[in-house]
């Protein structure tokens, strides 16, 4: 009891209310803690007491009636009245119950009532109000909504990425033999023919498959849908933080989204989790630095590249890509081009690399030089929407507006083909066609002094724009 009383006193030591601190309950707790009183059978008595009455812990100058006396009173009262006490008046019954009740139980009941009243008045509002107000309900709904918008992942607590799938996907309703295992068995060339609907179906069939999410994210990159690409790639690394290609692809998307710190963190995670270069990383301070030291991370990547050159097999294309992406984020485009070209020498049929070389050259003011790399990417993958769109942007910069309009319109048609046709037309609410492409096409049409085509861009009238451009 002394130990428990000490815990009670310690737990409320910061309570400033004088009535609470000087209450009889708190005085009793202190006396129990300090050993001034003890519990003997059912009574609270002074530690050295020999009398049959307990001390007045309430401090009101009266002794507490002992249990034996109460029992005697209860017996005599019951016999003298000849009936149970509850059959008399309410006042007499209350008086009788107060006498008959265990004195300690009565004491704690009174203290409990006082403390309950104090707590209700100071912490939970008036005791009579049991129904929350409209404002409180709205506040709780807002808190619940904000809470639901976040989730705990292997990377910490972060906003929920709710990837929006296209509805009525025919690949979910049909044969699943291909979509169930595509991520494990699909080659680089086969992925060119895989459409978004097939990849979304694969993910919906197996939501915990990190490789499937990665393939979907890369495809959305190719299709110039950066937001969806980021959502898919982030889900891939949440499911499997050791999936190195997903970290590298995510760094590319963050760079395109002008998220420099995101690019740094993704490349840093790729480096730290790469078992091939543990020795190089262990000699650096990279593991302890999460502040965005681009120079330090570039330095580690250069050491990794040198280490790869000294090993059997020579150049590691992934290291060169990681270095190029990081250099793009720091706007060192000439160096980034060199890194991409080095990787391209190892992977001469990689259409992603051809596009990245062209895009980096365009960022460096070399729009004319970029065209050849875009065309080569499209030779390898004619359905590569991002390369076709980038080709259109370079043509705009070169003031070749007719060609630009044609390339961007082709990119929109390809995006549109990845949607689901129904009785009412395309489901644009799902972001099948990109607003970025429409705005770029509108700009091109205005340069061509084709206000009619520009107005179709505002309405996203793809059929009208296509027919008018052919005419």
Automatic annotation (TrEMBL):
The UniProt record lists the keyword S-adenosyl-L-methionine: no
Localization (cell): Cytoplasm; Peroxisome
Record-linked InterPro entries: PEX18_PEX21_C (IPR056940), PEX5/PEX5L (IPR024111), TPR-like_helical_dom_sf (IPR011990), TPR_rpt (IPR019734)
Span of the signal peptide: none
Low complexity biased stretches: 71-80
TPR repeat extents: 210-243, 317-350, 351-384
Cellular component per GO, a single term: peroxisomal membrane
GO biological process: protein import into peroxisome matrix, docking
Region Disordered, residue ranges: 69-89
Keyword hit for RNA-binding: no
Keywords: Cytoplasm, Peroxisome, Repeat, TPR repeat, Ubl conjugation
Pfam families: PEX18_PEX21_C (PF25098), TPR_16 (PF13432)
One example GO MF annotation: peroxisome matrix targeting signal-1 binding
Source taxon at top rank: Eukaryota
Domain PEX18/PEX21 C-terminal stretches: 3-48
Family, similarity comment: Belongs to the peroxisomal targeting signal receptor family.
Protein name: PEX18/PEX21 C-terminal domain-containing protein
Species: Boletus reticuloceps
